[in-house]
Amino acid sequence: MSSAHVAAHAVHDPNTGTTGLDNRKMGMWAFLGSECMFFGTLIGTYLSYKGKSISGPTPHEILNIPLTSVSAFVLLMSSLLMVLALAAVQRNDMTWGKIWLFLTALLGAGFVGFQIYEFTHFVHLGLTLQTNLFGTTFFVLTGFHGAHVTGGVIWLLSLWVLALRGKLGPQDSLKVEICGLYWHFVDIVWIAIFTLVYLIP
Amino acid sequence: MADAHAHAASHAEGGHASVATYLRVAVVLAIITAIEITALYVPGLPNAVLVTVLIVFSVFKFGLVVAFFMHLRYDSKVLAALFVGPLMIACAIILALMALFSAFLLLPRA
Q1: Domains, chain A, ranges and CATH?
Q2: Which of B30, B70, B96 sits opposite A184 (nearest CB)?
């Protein structure tokens, strides 16, 4: 893109800044950068206190790896559905756009359901936020992630409702793309959490 | 009008991968996840090897999602810098915290 073209965009489009990039997209990437540091701190705290609880239950005794593997796979595949939704909206195929958006939200809700079951089960086994260092760091880390997924599900459903009411079309594909950036981010955070918290012995 | 311009601008910044590419990436992600979980149940695998394999695979999965699903491979380097810069700081925070607390994944604890 030439500098003259960029300048023309900056004059005519209030959403385009001097870099020639869309401000909304740039804002989302800056937000995701700050989220990296947020989750980095929580992950660092979890790893720093790993194995330092003076009483049980310990991760080895309580974590259900087969169940969490299924929920991790569900979230991973929801990322695929998200890009399929974006591709459908961009080519003005709103029928599939609506289907993929709804299914992405559904898989996200499924992930949250797995997490609610896991948290409830752990509390029944005696692990709470106050039980030990593992309980505190585990619930804070995975709970904040779950809250992010819940926010993403609400965002996806609001886009789906807009699409159902005919208020979302290819001209709004950037809205879907920005929501997708957020959704993929919660997926990559779970890739890190799943490996560092669940898989590494 | 503004949205139409923004739409055109977003395409000018860089294209997106094809649906076929998205599907290929998803298959690779699924296969890597299956390998990671299988690796847990390999008898006699040294802990250091297991931890290294798991971290390398998860970094690869992270990179695939960012590059293809989040389109960073096709987008402006400014956006990449906005994300990768803080990501590096986050990694440094994790390593610094672990060093401060003598918590190492591969080495015995102090």
Answers
A1: 38-199 (1.20.120.80)
A2: B70
